[in-house]
Design goal:
The protein is α+β, with helices and mostly antiparallel strands and 155 residues long. The chain is 33% helix and 26% strand. The longest helix is centred in the last third of the chain and has 22 residues. 7% of the residues are buried. The structure holds zinc ion (ZN). The site of zinc ion has 8 residues, from helix 2.
Length: 155
Amino acid sequence: MPALATTHSLNDYLKLPISRYREQLRQGNAQSIEVSYTHRSKPYQYSIQLTKTSCNYGGNRYWWLCPKCYQRTSTLYCAGLYVCRHCIGANYGSQLQQPIDRIYSNLNALRERLGWQVGIIHGIGERPKGMHHSTYERLLVEYEQLTNKLIRTFY
Ligand SMILES: [Zn+2]
């Protein structure tokens, strides 16, 4: 039985509460907020859509629309992109992933390392310039093992 002791909790993710933009939102009729940050040394810059509801006591309350599922939420969590807690659970908490999803994400991580377009549908690519032959061979073997694992989950 795999141990569940390392299960991720939402506290492991960087939070982005809408309240952080309260001052900015008070000024006008914002439809989105532009965010820019670096996550695991990758730069991100994009807009997150907003929606608002009116409060009983007047004024509006703003919400994020999750960039992945477009659900309304007051807090987003950083998984590369900022997404809602449901999307974190469904796609990003690796402990919560089904084995097959885990194989896919390992395959894609490997593809990224090889500089191949992500998605196994694109097949095997070339050895990246500057990568040592022995490294490339080793990664190819790893890739093949993962692909076999994937095939085994289907049969
Ligand atoms: Zn979501």
